[in-house]
Amino acid sequence: MTARGVFTRHGLRHTRQRQAIYEALAATKEHPTADELFRMVSPRTPGLSLATVYNTLEAFCEVGLAMRIASTSNGKRGTGSARYDATVDNHLHLRCQQTGAVIDVPDELSQRLLDRIPSELLAELEAKLGFKVEQVQIEFVGCFDGGHTKA
Amino acid sequence: MTARGVFTRHGLRHTRQRQAIYEALAATKEHPTADELFRMVSPRTPGLSLATVYNTLEAFCEVGLAMRIASTSNGKRGTGSARYDATVDNHLHLRCQQTGAVIDVPDELSQRLLDRIPSELLAELEAKLGFKVEQVQIEFVGCFDGGHTKA
DNA sequence: GTACGTGCAAAATGTTTGCATCATT
DNA sequence: AATGATGCAAACATTTTGCACGTAC
């Protein structure tokens, strides 16, 4: 499916900027922040502005083309930036405590864990608490041996 | 255990402010933001400043007395504030998509799900990816029937 | 008495918005 | 032509920090 097609199907206009941002986000297995994405895409997209990256990512999230991943901390103390993920189906994340980097758990492992979540449990949550679960987010927080962040 | 004792054991000095903040955080099942906590505690703690609430919460997180919970969004678009949780053992959270509120999943349900995470799976993660898991964070994102946020 | 915590206001992020202009439909 | 996207700069919200003072040990 062409990027243009993806946008149209989701009711978004096609622009150079959106295409570049979408391609970059879909291509990486890391989960870049808006700023990282800006720096990745900017050289190939003259005149791109950071605000557009934010707006575009927000638009993607609204139509379900991307997901925002919150950050507890960016390595040291403090709040980090949001990260974005073009993979929309449920999957697990690994978050590095030191750097704040987030990468995917390999599909096979993700699936094995997700398969073990009993659906009665979700049903019970809905029944007991009146809460409709739309999405399950699972994250393993820890660190890479030696502190590097690439898998 | 007296609050003073808890602090001492964790190498923190005891102050009126810290005690008040800790008590408030430990007493609630909701997971307040720094600002919410400030407004809860402030009336009973003359001259408390928001900066102290932030500093204190950060100190608590560092010694393991509290946890920071990141927020993807605060209901509508945008970044919300971090939330804090005095319950340190692994448990699950419910996050309301509309309001950003976070509450705990009842222990019984939490435990049932956590028990189903095979420990070989964690071992495999460590072996295959060289990632040491310190903490598992699980969150159900969705909404309460009717959009209210109290359980 | 010393080291650490506090309060204030100012700085540092990270993110959103108003508005004029430009591109897509 | 009309609607919506972009870019810039300014506004915003959240969190952190520098410094003078106060307090716990």
Sheet with the most strands: spatial strand order of chain A: 4-3-5
Question: What sequence of helices (H) and strands (E) makes up the elements of chain A?
Answer: HHHHEEEEHHE
> Roughly how many Å is the radius of gyration of chain A?
17 Å
Greatest interface (CB-CB under 8 A), with counts per chain: A-B, 44 and 45 residues
Q: Segments of chain A where pLDDT lies below 50 for 5+ residues?
A: none
Q: How does the helix and strand content of chain A classify structurally?
A: alpha+beta
The separation of the N and C termini of chain A measures: 29 Å
User: Helix fraction of chain A?
Assistant: 25-40%
How would you state the average pLDDT of chain A, rounded?
Answer: 88
Q: Classify the beta-strand content of chain A into a percent band.
A: 15-25%
Number of strands of chain A: 5
Major sheet of chain A: 3 strands, mixed
Give me the secondary-structure topology:
2 copies of one chain form a homodimer.
Chain A: H1 3-9, H2 16-27, H3 34-41, H4 50-63, E1 67-69, E2 83-85, E3 93-96, E4 102-104, H5 107-114, H6 119-129, E5 131-144
Parallel strand pairs in A: 3-5
Antiparallel strand pairs in A: 1-2, 3-4
Helix pairs in contact in A: 2-3, 3-4
Chain A binds a DNA duplex (25 and 25 nucleotides) through residues 13-18, 33-35, 47-52, 54-56, 58-59, 77-82.
